[in-house]
Amino acid sequence: MKKLTHLFLLLIPFLSFSQDYGNNSDAIEICAAMQSNNFSSDTKAENALDQILNVIGASKRFVLQPCDNINNAVATSFKGIRYILYDRDFMDSLDNGTNWGNLFILAHEVGHHINGHSVDIVLYAADIVESKTLEQKRLQELEADEFAGFILAKLGGDISEANKIISKISTNDDDTYDTHPSRSKRLNAIKIGYNKGLGNETTVYEAPTKAQTSEEYFYRAYEKINLKDYYGAIADYTKAIEINPNFSNAYYNRGLTKYDLKDYKGAIEDYTKAIEINPNYIQAYNNRGAVKRELKDNYGAIADYTKAIEINPNHSSAYYNRGAVKSELKDNYGAIADYTKAIEINPNFSNAYNNRGKSKAILKNYYGAISDFTKTIEINPNHSHAYYNRGNAKFILKDYYGAISDCTKDIEINPNKSVAYFRRGLSKYFLGDTNGACKDARKALELGTLTTNDAVLAPKFINNECN
């Protein structure tokens, strides 16, 4: 028994946790950030948007994303992509044209994008661009109101519907210290736009340019990504770059797509080009670091993550990723320092707690590791790796009942986790339950996804103890 124990402890691995380097969930992240207090279908929202854009002969150069519980529609930009987020319930009746007030609100948000008002919130967070003054914000609201009034007239809506909306959400108080203009100013802007829409004044809200044509390919590529047409997306990003060679976001997104296709060299080239155009492109540094890590260029990856941190010292993901590379280089103290920093910035960063726990376990600080794994589980009760890792640490500390409990929970979340079956089986063995141990060991072998060490150990264990 003692000989077996020694052998098992030497070979027990702590699982690593994979990272997400893509940006497919960005719109959902923004939505979650903006929810505070939706069209009943996405098709209705798209149809309403098409109506608005057809009025001015514009193509869609932003992403329309449903976002529940915001009771509004919001124009914003994130990582170089422009979005309009909308609450389905709030916008529910736009499809039949009876709720002109809601259509006005959607048109108002489109107006912000058409007029170039949305600046990337990532750049704001990094203090790379200056915040707009209150006066600038009020002016932009008036420009968006004028555009929405124009759209309302063109589509045959009644200006009184827009006026009702503005009357509900504004006052005639002094607006000097407000982000939005007073009611009278907004009503006047709507009237100006409405009169333009009736043809009483000549106006051009959009004059096609090369940059806009380039953006059309860019957003078409973005939609192809959602359809998993990666090669089609690359072709569109390439066309966007041909029209506008300084389109850093097109290089960045093409790099993301090449990464998905495992064209790592091509991805690095595109991220590098994006950085040449925009030396403060944090996401490009972060993602280039991820590709270098994939290619085992760990020191190159650390350099890129460090650069991202220099640009934005509060970039928790860069600390987390750099910590992961340091861990691979067996610099576990350095890894712990980076994970700790990521946690200071984002106290709910469950993966950072999990990875810090793994580094502590490697340094034989098992109680500290268990504390981190427990925190991971508190934040994310379905974090199967944390249960397994905590069970591992308990196993090493000979808390076999605790190890069995954690491995069982891991198996409940992930029924095909072969290493959890094997670790639970070993715990049962040391508690004298040989039958239960053999059953779990055989199940682990049946699933066939054991780590290299366990794949060697499991058959030996079965042959020695289960026959």
What's a concise summary of this model?
This protein is mainly alpha-helical and 467 residues long. It has 23 helices and three strands. Among the domains are: 1-24 and 352-467, Tetratricopeptide repeat domain (Serine Threonine Protein Phosphatase 5, Tetratricopeptide repeat), CATH 1.25.40; 35-197, no CATH class.
* Strand arrangement, major sheet: 1-3-2
- Given helix and strand content, the structural type is mainly alpha
Quaternary organization: single chain
DSSP strand content: under 5%
What is the element layout, followed by pairings?
Blueprint lengths: L1 H10 L14 H9 L7 H15 L6 E4 L6 E6 L2 E6 L13 H15 L6 H5 L8 H21 L4 H11 L13 H15 L12 H17 L3 H14 L4 H13 L3 H14 L4 H13 L3 H14 L4 H13 L3 H14 L4 H13 L3 H14 L4 H13 L3 H14 L4 H13 L3 H14 L4 H14 L2
Parallel strand pairs: 1-3
Antiparallel strand pairs: 2-3
Task: Considering the chains and any ligands shown, give keywords for the structure.
467 residues; mainly alpha; Serine Threonine Protein Phosphatase 5, Tetratricopeptide repeat; 23 helices; 66% helix; elongated; disordered N terminus
Would you give an account of this structure?
The structure is a single chain. The chain has helices spanning 2-11, 26-34, 42-56, 100-114, 121-125, 134-154, 159-169, 183-197, 210-226, 230-243, 248-260, 264-277, 282-294, 298-311, 316-328, 332-345, 350-362, 366-379, 384-396, 400-413, 418-430, 434-447, 452-465; strands spanning 63-66, 73-78, 81-86. The chain has 467 residues and is mostly helical. Among the domains are: 1-24 and 352-467, Serine Threonine Protein Phosphatase 5, Tetratricopeptide repeat, CATH 1.25.40; 35-197, no CATH class. It has a 3-stranded mixed sheet with strand order 1-3-2. Helix 6 (134-154) runs parallel beside helix 8 (183-197) and helix 18 runs antiparallel to helix 19. The radius of gyration is 28 Å and the shape is elongated.
